[in-house]
Amino acid sequence: xKTTLLLxxxxxxxxxxASCSGQPFGNNNANTAAGGTISILGSGASFPExxxxxxxxxxxxxxxxxRIDYQATGSGAGQKAIKENTSDFGASDxxxxxxxxxxxxxxxxPTVLGAVVLTYNLPEVKERLKLSPEAIAGxxxxxxxxxxxxxxxxDNAEVNLPDTEISPVYRADxxxxxxxxxxxxxxxxxxxxxxxxxxxQPSWITGVGAGxxxxxxxxxxxxxxPNSIGYVEIAFAKANDLPTALIKNKSGKFxxxxxxxxxxxxxxxxxxxxxxxxxxxxxxxxxxxxxxxxYTYILVNKEQPDDVKGKALxxxxxxxxxxxxxxxxxxxxxxxxxxxxxxxxEKLKTITSNGTALRQ
Length: 360
Hints:
Helix content: 25-40%
Structural class: alpha/beta
CATH superfamily of the largest domain: Periplasmic binding protein-like II
CATH topology of the largest domain: D-Maltodextrin-Binding Protein, domain 2
Oligomer: single chain
Mean pLDDT: 91
Largest sheet: 8 strands, mixed
Number of helices: 13
Low-confidence stretches: 1-34
Distance between the termini: 47 Å
Number of domains: 2
Radius of gyration: 24 Å
């Protein structure tokens, strides 16, 4: 009788101890914080930062035991972080190249569609500017130096353009936004393709413009420098109440970076999206396609070293591409096409820990 009572007390003490530790029964994982909080760290692209912050805030309300911190360090830094396992996930607007994926298990999860816009600081100009790929390339190559240059005036006959020097602003860090911007110009302008090309961190023309770090850095420069122009993700221009140019697309039409026009840029290529989901959609076909559009990606390891953290990350991504999409339009992003959501679902089901799928 005494022996039975002693065993019962020991068992009860063990259960209470396990409960107080915050760890689930039967799980020896030591990477959840005190109180059962699961901490996940991500870093990378500043392009999707506004929507990622919104998602993490909303998801945290539903799952207070999951804390996701995101650092907008730039796409290049995000790719480096996931390759070197210094963060739980990376983020990039520029899909990783084949050579960078060698020896890794990194997979790409598209999350939203966004637009890179040309925003400018011309207080005396009230009309919305129209810019062709030739004009944009000319500005950033240093061939077009003044706002009333004939190549700009040709598309803006009704605008009283100032006779002032243009101050271009570009990304100084390794940037997916730059990769999208330069990919568009490479597809639309042969001189740009030959001299600069598509790159996350190109060698800018010496003496042309000034660099800044992050979308917010470029936006800050444009906001503070009269007669300047810069390229940023549209949410940053909207948040700072600065105008954005209409851009000439492949069909010869000047279009704005609306959600509908960004979606139109993706629509034609969904059926041809590769199995690994890495794709670019700049200078897309279609009368209404906005030409500087892009998917943005979360980068994750297919085999997760921590089953608890890995499951929490996969569940968050599943929520993001389903319930999280309802927050995209208010932040000026376009939701994923339904066909792409289905492709993401299948990709998320391939993520494992100890060989076991984390999402059935």
